[in-house]
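Tutorial, part two.
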Amino acid sequence: MTGDSQPRPRSDLAVRSAVGLGLIAVAVAAVGLGGLYFWLVVTIAALLMLGEWADLHAAPAKARRLAQFALFVPLVTMTPEWVIGETRDFFTVGLLVGAAFFVVIVSRMPKLALGVIYVGVPVLALIVIRRQLGVDGLVWTFWALALVWATDIGAYFAGRTIGGPKLLPSVSPNKTWAGLIGGVIAAGALAAILHVAAGLPLRLALATPFLAVLAQGGDLYESWLKRRAGVKDSGDLLPGHGGVLDRLDGLVPVAPVAALLVVLPTVRAFLAQQFG
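Running the prediction step on this input gives:
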């Protein structure tokens, strides 16, 4: 986890590294292939995340399956075959809200319904980014994912090497201020490289350090959920990492903001055309 200042056993670190590299390889392949392949990977991840969210909120198995089925409906509308233009995204957002209302009405669990939004919005955001034309969609999606990876890696090693004052010990006793700074620096360095080597727009590169802080905020939020639930990890699917939610908690708040930054010029151009 981000900013962990406690050294891990060598064997655990090896497993963690191997699984982490495997996950990155799957994500990079999905981004590169795009289309239905990308949708399939993010959809599977979303359904697993919602299942773990349900477990963190002590939802019974029947309610968990209900929420996953409800989420799958708007996820289907995100497929390349369905999504023709940006106007369909508003329809998908409406379905996400409708799915959340359906879950809360049937299950009487508002927190479980919140999970539909918590998981569904970042998935839609990633698909919007990947849908951008040409190489831009490829580079920008990789940027949104990789800045979270860089933040995690930079924070882990800075926290482990430097240590120092704790960031928020009541929520996550191992995260440090050194880890926070290390993660921001690592993400900023990645953005600078992508700006020079791959043409990442300057506005996205400049926003990256702030998104890195947001990623660590998402990590802290999930740590708070786990502490409240009395568990160490959100799941046990990924050896050395815990659950899918443990690995993607930082991406949850980053993806929607990154998508807004990506589509901002298009929105400005549209408004200028309509009202200029």
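The two ends are 48 Å apart (CA to CA). In part three we will examine how such features are distributed along the chain.
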